[in-house]
Specification:
Blueprint: E1 18-23, H1 33-37, E2 42-44, E3 50-52, H2 60-69, E4 75-80
The protein binds iron/sulfur cluster.
Length: 81
Amino acid sequence: MDDAQPTDQTTSDNTGKKKGAYVDPATCIGCTLCTQVCPNVYEMQDDGKSKAVNPTNDTEEKIQESIEACPVDAISWKDVE
Ligand code: SF4
């Protein structure tokens, strides 16, 4: 039987839950900073807000940097499957 791949993301460890980035759209002011720090994680949406389209698609260090770069603290860590 083929192993079903849950997403297009690779899993870096076997601890179960993995941390990824989450953008609160109500807080985001669309400054695009996070997309500059982690272009593989965030993408600007048609509504002018950023979205973490690939929440785990960079190193923890870079994602943390993007969280700290956000001027309105719209980004946080969340557990992803
Ligand atoms: S850095 Fe923060 S305010 Fe700026 S686009 Fe990203 S989430 Fe939105």
